[in-house]
Amino acid sequence: MSDVDAALDTALQPLVGGQGPVQVATESVGASAISAWCAVMSEANPLFVDEAVAASGPHGGIVAPPATLNMWTMPVRIEGDSVGRDTDQPQQAAYQLLDDAGFTGVVATNSDQAYEAHLRPGDIVSARTTLVGVSPQKQTALGIGHFVTTEVAYANQHGDPVGTLTFRIFKFRPGTGRQRGDEPVDDSPRPERPRPRWNQDQAWHWEGLRQHELRIQRFTGSGRLVHPPVVADPTTHDMAYDWVVASGRGSLYSWTAPEHPKVPAFDYPLVVGLVELEEGVRVVSNIVGVRPDQLEIGMPLEVCWLDSHDDVTLHQFRPVRPDRRTDTLVRGDVSVGDRLPPCPIDVTTELVMSGALATFDHQDVHHDSDAARAKGLPDIIMNILTSSGLAARWLGDWAGDQMVFRNLRIGLGASNHPGDTMTMTGSVTDVGEGGAVTVAFLGTNSLGNHIRGSAELVLPEGPQGAEGSA
Amino acid sequence: MWTPARRTAIVGIGATEFSKDSGRTPMQLATEACLAACGDAGLDPTLVDGMSLFSMERNYEIEVARNLGIPRLRFFSMVNHGGGGGCATVGMAAMAVHTGAADYVLAYRAFNERSWHRFGGGVQAHHQSPEANDVSFSWTSPFGLLTPAQWAGMFATRYMHQHGATSEDFGRIAVVDRRHAANNPAAFFHGRPITLEEHQASRIISDPLRLLDCCQESDGGVALLITSAERAEGLDREPAWIAAAAQGVAEDQWMMRSYYRDDITGIPEMGLVAEQLWKSSGLGPADMQAAMLYDHFTPLVLPQFEEFGFCAAGEAKDFIADGNIEVGGGLPINTNGGQLGEAYIHGMNGIAEGVRQVRGTSVNQVDGAVNVLVTSGSGVPTSGLVLSSEGG
């Protein structure tokens, strides 16, 4: 350890164990903030937004989505170009020391929320934060830095506990990431995929793909659809055809996952699927956003696009965002090993920025790409409250409106950058007493696992006698 | 070439217009010409069951058959050496219809040798417009489906899903082949049997195919000498009689990628071969004492038992259990070790082993082997033989 590092450590360690003054939110829990949050997360549970439905629901009125627990006391952005630091708070003091030592980069790595009561519009949230640890210096892919862990206890204006949060961030020195120093940068151009070849009998199909249309040959006499295209209707021998644009929806008919030999043009795991389109014909394509062990024959898929060459676009297929259940799963509906339907989420600039704003997270790395680059990131990154919110929405879509979260634990790995797609997958790992169901899940993007998480959900009891009466 | 006198005939002719720029693909020209020939003869094109080509034809028979909707193609051949083969296509067709190998045979040539590929340009010619056979790979290769194992993997997953077969069921084929090979001094894997556990531990090549589901690439050669019954009598060896020989291309046939049929868990071109072999030999599954089944990939062995009627569709996993396909079982297979155990000589070594079985000279001899089934490539335009120790 260098003298500088030793000095930093000497300054940091006395802060550990410290507890700051109670921080009281400057604004109450607001219905409009809840609505904005739900809009960004595509959360459709009426118990969060619809007064009439919520009044007759299990909570007797609108409640805030549990995943918003820590956003109501987020530090307020003050004048100037940085988020204000209240150094009475031990964790803020630690962040300041780290900033001053050059560890100006920041990413959240863990958020473990546990819920004790629902928050309702009008509630004033208060938080008491304990700094529970600052790690020794670590080298990660992002850079050299320190993990800082806090525990926060939240209460409402009546002093009733509403939940707790264990939160960990990584403060790192920009420019010290492994990929910048220790590992040679491979900047050789990536080889292209095998190039499709076509002639005038199929050119219309490939032109369609360029326009994001999946065109299927239709013989005009018989109306028969054929794929891959031919020149004559195999039944009538009529040669007059046009095409229909497929809806892009289908289901998985079969698949294989090539592993050997690996071809540099492709990412692995690679899944080649045989997709049965809802129009009734099959196409060979890639299944993206899911690993081989997450595939199920018959799973619904939708088309997406890959520009594979300067002048070639390929269709690809990915899981369809599952429909939100209109009823709620009840105890007995769920068994250990049950899989949740995979759900792709497009990570757009709009989602990253509006997610940060809707969760009151004004850190510049979530909305300012120049600032993000200055801190050693390739682009803006999704904040952890948005990642948590999206995971919670997906879990709620699966379980239904009346499911109650007991906790939500999120560990972040590979960042969510604009232009990527995160696919949620998960399965039930435990079914406990009292309807508590544990789900372990992943949010996977092109770089790896963005989220590795788990949640405990409490399901309502089913109708009397519906279960176990046989 | 032997063409019977006045016993066969050309009954229809068809052509496109002749130009310096057809404006159409060679595939369309071929299809038009074939339809015109059928029209001239007044024949429903789907009754065509033979195609006779000569080399440099780039509109392969399976492409034309797919367009014509031909459900059963029982004879297909390509005579080598370009233009000199023209009349030979008619000769081959004549032999086919005379012998009953096919009822109606189309012979054709179609190309754009002026507007696409300047034929007279020799090797400098550069053609920009891919022909049907080039195009056919564009539906799979850009997605990373590039090798035979990967093509087979797509069938395997569906077969497992539909019939409840498992990777272990595939593995049982490999274990039996390697057990037979272990006893065969000529086999690459002589003395090297495998266990099902070793199969299950072998690495994934293209999920669900494992390394030990795939045959090895081999160097080697196999040749076979065929003659007439009369001439056979003057030779040293007991003949392995050809009780039946047949070819098969089924509806919507592709090379290892027939993914667009209603059901992809069967091998209907094998079924067409089976139907003809049983019919022309007068034999059936119960008459076979052994079978040499093409085994480049284990998942494509299982449906062969089903197509040849040794068991019902989807039941091969039960048929192969309990030693039934080992020497001593009900239907020993691949007694040379197959392509998984002996060598991958494109199935020609399986024919040679079939001959050894009916001669009684196999290292894994099946007691009382009189009739032996031999199959060729699975998932491709294929063929089969019934060999017998009993002459006509």
Give an account of the 3D structure:
The complex is a heterodimer of chains A (470) and B (392). The radius of gyration of chain A is 26 Å and the shape is globular. Chain A starts with a helix and ends in a 12-residue tail after the last strand. Chain A has eight helices and 19 strands. In chain A, strands 1, 2, 3, 4, 5, 6, 15, 16, 17, 18 and 19 form an eleven-stranded antiparallel sheet that branches. In chain A, strands 10-11-12-14-13 form a five-stranded mixed barrel. A three-stranded antiparallel sheet of chain A has the order 8-7-9, covered by helices on one side. In chain A, 16% of the residues lie in helices and 32% in strands. Mean pLDDT of chain A is 90; it is low at 465-470. In chain A, helix 2 (31-41) packs antiparallel against helix 6. In chain A, a hairpin with a 4-residue loop joins strand 11 (272-277) and strand 12 (282-287). Chain A is an alpha+beta fold. In chain B, helix 1 packs across helix 2 (61-68). With 392 residues, chain B is α/β, with parallel strands linked by helices. In chain B, the strands form three sheets. A five-stranded mixed sheet of chain B has the order 2-7-10-9-8, with helices on both faces. Chain B is globular, with a radius of gyration of 22 Å. Chain B is built from 13 helices and ten strands. At the A-B interface, strand 10 and strand 12 of A face helix 1, helix 2, helix 4, helix 5 and strand 5 of B.
Which series of helices and strands of chain A comes N to C?
A: HEHHHEEEEEHEEEEEEEEEHHHEEEE
What is the averaged pLDDT score of chain B?
A: 92
* Largest interface (CB < 8 Å): A-B, 46 and 52 residues
What level of helicity do the residues of chain A show?
Answer: 10-25%
Radius of gyration of chain B: 22 Å
Note the run of SSEs of chain B as H and E.
Answer: HEHEEHEHHHHEEHEHEHHHHEE
**Low-confidence segments of chain B, ≥5 residues, pLDDT <50?**
none
* Percent of sequence in beta strands of chain A: 25-35%
Low-confidence stretches of chain A: 465-470
Shape of chain A: globular
Q: How many β-strand runs of chain B?
A: 10
Structural class of chain B: alpha/beta
Instruction: Output the strand order for the largest sheet of chain B.
Output: 2-7-10-9-8
* Number of helical stretches of at least 4 residues of chain B: 13
Anisotropy-based shape of chain B: globular
- Global Rg of chain A: 26 Å
Mean pLDDT score of chain A: 90
The largest sheet of chain A, given as strand count, sense and whether it forms a barrel, is: 11 strands, antiparallel
Q: From the structure provided, what is the oligomeric state, counting identical versus distinct chains?
A: heterodimer
Strand percentage of chain B lies at: 5-15%
Distance between the termini of chain A: 68 Å
